[in-house]
Amino acid sequence: MEKRILITGGAGFIGSHVVRRFVKSYPGYKIVNLDKLTYAGNLLNLVDIEDEPNYEFVKGDIVDAGFIADLFSVYQFDAVIHLAAESHVDRSIANPMEFVMTNVIGTVNLLNAAKEYWKGDYDKKRFYHVSTDEVYGALGETGMFTEATSYDPHSPYSASKASSDHFVRAYHDTYGLDVVISNCSNNYGSHHFPEKLIPLAINNIKNNKAVPVYGKGENVRDWLWVEDHARAIDVIFHQAKTGETYNIGGHNEWKNIDLIKLLCKIMDQKLGREAGASEQLITYVTDRAGHDLRYAIDSSKLQHNLGWVPGLQFEEGLAKTVDWYLENEQWLNDVTSSNYQSYYETQYAER
Ligand code: NAD
Ligand code: TYD
After folding, report:
1. 279: CB partners within 8 A, 6+ apart
2. Pocket test for ligand 2, best of 196, 200, 211, 229 (most atoms within 8 A of CB)
3. Cα 147 from chain centroid?
4. Does residue 135 line the site of ligand 2, with CB under 6 A?
5. Cα–Cα distance for residue pair 93/334, rounded to 1 Å
6. What residues form DSSP beta bridges with 246?
7. Are 145 and 137 in contact (CB under 8 A)?
8. EC number(s) on record (predicted)?
């Protein structure tokens, strides 16, 4: 094996796309997917590659330092690509401590294990931390986040990711660990848990349920096809210089309400409904506390230095995403069967 790579959070939305890409593209790498399988982690996301000889799944918690140390000693990793996290802003508002534990303590546990097991060999190892544009805070009507933008997180989620980013940089500056960080905009695509805007809206439209739009629907997000994100991670992992940060984004800004209307139009066509039928489901609800107005990523550093550009155009990606959810009813039923209903009722009853 050329490299033994630990990918954390590989059973989640983005992680499953990253695991699939690395397992398929690099038969010479051994990919170990470590995941706690929280409500957001699902091994069904990886059934197509689970029997590949260069893939192994390990169930475990990054908050457990002893377990992480043992894992490093058993597998002798050459690199870590760290995606495991609590990732939903609304849940962070309801329960911030889980975000501190997984996103901050879990990340520091991984850094400590890397620092210990890679001692004397830092130039041959790599710790890749996957982060979010939300660490930069909120933009007004204009401007974009660059790699030089100061951190200004507003939600417990973004504060915990910002904190983990700072620890990763501190381990580079203090101990000389080889680290890279990328901060990406909102992803969309298949296998996305239906608590986030796009899959939640698809699920609700499909079931003729109200589509909750926070506030006036005027908040803006920059949407990127998840497989374009996985490709960016591949490029950055292999080509970035040590200590570097890259912003990843789609140059694809949408007001929430415009996005939902486009989704309704696509779904009317796919479901054979009368034009305008699904839009009737749009329901404005109480805004999210501390709701960031606008995110927009300037990814020109990545484009110029490493030649990455976003691939899929948004309308096409959204239509493909809708197709995937309509064709994978069993997956949707599975992920919405256990605690999802109680989460949904608590989250949306208060609005
Ligand atoms: P997700 O919630 O879909 O998946 C997270 C995964 O981490 C799950 O499989 C879960 O079981 C696992 N996990 C959670 N706690 C764990 C723990 N303590 N130990 C081990 N595994 C644990 O998240 P996602 O949307 O795929 O995001 C992945 C990463 O990318 C996160 O770090 C997130 O901050 C970042 N990110 C996400 C987006 C986005 O739009 N979703 C954008 C930019 C960055
Ligand atoms: P989300 O998918 O939770 O991602 P993030 O908060 O990390 O950007 O939300 C995307 C946008 O959609 C955000 O502005 C909040 C809004 N939103 C709604 O209007 N209704 C919803 O039910 C959800 C989940 C989000």
Report:
1. 261, 264, 265
2. 196
3. 18
4. no
5. 26
6. 182
7. no
8. 4.2.1.46
Report the nearest-CA residue for atom 25 of ligand 2: 197
Q: Give me ligand 1 centre to Cα 122, in Å.
A: 26
Choose the residue to mutate in 8, 46, 83, 188 for probing ligand 1, maximizing ligand atoms within 8 Å of C-beta. 83
Ligand number nearest to the C-alpha of 130: 1
Q: Set out the domains of the chain in order of their start, with CATH numbers.
A: 3-192+223-251+294-312+340-348 (3.40.50.720)
Q: Each residue's pLDDT tens digit in the chain (351 positions)?
A: 589 999 999 999 999 999 999 999 999 999 999 999 999 999 999 999 999 999 999 999 999 999 999 999 999 999 999 999 999 999 999 999 999 999 999 999 999 999 999 999 999 999 999 999 999 999 999 999 999 999 999 999 999 999 999 999 999 999 999 999 999 999 999 999 999 999 999 999 999 999 999 999 999 999 999 999 999 999 999 999 999 999 999 999 999 999 999 999 999 999 999 999 999 999 999 999 999 999 999 999 999 999 999 999 999 999 999 999 999 999 999 999 888 989 999 999 877
d(CA 50, CA 335): 19
Euclidean distance between CA atoms 91 and 97, whole angstroms: 10
| Ligand 1 lined by 156 (C-beta under 6 Å) | no
Measured in Å, residue 311 CA sits from the centre of ligand 2 at 23
Assigned token pair, 258: 């415009």
What tokens does 271 get?
């479901």
